[in-house]
Amino acid sequence: MREDELHELAAGYALGTLEGEDLARFEARLRGGDAAARHALRQFEETLARLAAEAAEPPPPAVKVALMGRIAAGSPARQGDGARVVPLAARPRRSVWTTVLAGAMAAGIAAIAVGMAVSSRYERRLEVLGQEAATLKAELERQSAVLAILRDPATQIVALNGLEPSPTARARMLWHEKAGGLLVAAGLPPAPAGKAYQLWAIAGKHAPVPAGVFKVDQHGTGSLRVTPLAGVSRVDVFAVTLEPEAGVPAPTGPMYLAGKSA
Amino acid sequence: MREPQTASVAADLIAAIARGDRAAFERFYDAYSPLAFGLIRRILRDPEAAKEVLQEVFWQVWQEAAAYDPSRGSGEAWLVMRARTRAIDKLRSIRRREQTFVAPADGRVAAAPETRRDDPALAAEDRGLAESALGQLPGPQRQAIELAFLEGLTQTEIAARLGEPLGTVKTRIRLGLERLRAAFKVDNP
């Protein structure tokens, strides 16, 4: 094999672009202990690591707190996707005031957690507090994000009114094209087992875009944080339907809430 | 930014992590999480998704440190490759969801983000890499590498996207990476 060809395969392998026969050929070389192939691959991987280093960016502290809590808890390794990630943003179900207060407490609890880290005697308590701090800190971050959305004049505020199945239900949708949004709903009947409410964003004559599923508590209130929807900017209508709890790609169930943006 | 630590520091920490040393894990996280996070953020624009992927990558480091073989490459490269794979997996799952949910007939809606990314100059600037070594490459090479490294496209997909023959794309990727390798003076035994 020419050197150019080997380098082409190694570059493609490092970047993850190889497929089919090219991939099989290069993997066979690696398995066979081909020194030239390994050398070329290693150099390209180091190159990509340097490239990544140019864009280094410190992560938010909540990730470390969550990770250290998870390690301290000694979570056993599990196979399967998704299940292993400790959610950084659990869905808020409390009133705004409770959440704000809880958020304010997060800093305090985090400080306690840090203090205890120096003493291994308190390790057990640290595990609990570390996880609690991670949850609260994540909530505080989410609250800050919501406040940022509220402060931005580009944010749309849409009132959703109850429809036939639940005429007294009400909801407010805060929507910002780049930051995403927040739906707060009240007066909805609790979803039957296996079902959940699903939010839809509709722009003009386009098909409704699913924006997430949520449930309500026994008082009929619920909320949903919506991440920015790819390809969706201005939204004309927000609607909520009752769907299977995993969510569906296009609405199938009865519509409970709908509202047009101004 | 500060000078990257020497490869042996990362490798030594990973070896300690493999023995279950939490303090080593914490030092490794403190030193190298910005390396992984910067890349993940440039692949995934959603900050929540980026945080999730970062946590998952380092959880894997904690679980699978024993699989690291220093003879195959530096600890940094090992981490970066894991971060990139996880982030691209996430990006692809987000794309699959978008493709399912946005009707193909809705051309304007579906195509908008891609069109924006097709301009390599815009894309590089947008991702804060315009000033980096990547920004110094000739446009077509930079574009091919970005589509691969940051968008997770295969070489066939890149060729289709750019409307170029597959051979041309392979050559551009090779030439681009070779130039970057020279620029970074990567030369290990």
The helix tally of chain B amounts to 9
The quaternary state of the protein chains shown equals: heterodimer
Binned, the helix content of chain B reads over 70%
Rough shape of chain B?
A: globular
What is the share of helical residues of chain A? Answer: 40-55%
**Whole-angstrom Rg of chain B:** 18 Å
- Quote the average pLDDT of chain A: 82
Main β-sheet description of chain A: 8 strands, antiparallel
Alpha carbon gyration radius of chain A: 24 Å
> What is the N-to-C order of secondary-structure elements of chain B (H for helix, E for strand)?
HHHHHHHHH
Return the structural class of chain B: mainly alpha
The sequence of SSEs of chain A as H and E is: HHHHHHEEEEEEEE
Low-confidence stretches of chain B: 1-7, 102-125
Biggest sheet statistics of chain B: none
Alpha-carbon distance between the two ends of chain B: 27 Å
User: What's the total count of β strands of chain B?
Assistant: 0
Continuous helix count of chain A: 6
Fraction in beta strands of chain A: 15-25%
Q: Pairing-aware structural class of the strands and helices of chain A?
A: alpha+beta
Q: Beta fraction of the residues of chain B?
A: under 5%
Number of strands of chain A: 8
Would you kindly provide a written description of the structure presented here, covering whatever features stand out?
The complex is a heterodimer of chains A (262) and B (189). With 262 residues, chain A is of the alpha+beta class. Chain A is 41% helix and 21% strand. Chain A has six helices and eight strands; from the N terminus they run ααααααββββββββ. Chain A has an eight-stranded antiparallel β-sheet with strand order 5-4-7-8-1-2-3-6. In chain B, helix 6 (120-126) packs across helix 7 (139-149). Chain B is mainly alpha-helical. Chain B has helices at 7-18, 22-43, 47-64, 75-101, 107-118, 120-126, 139-149, 155-162, 166-183.
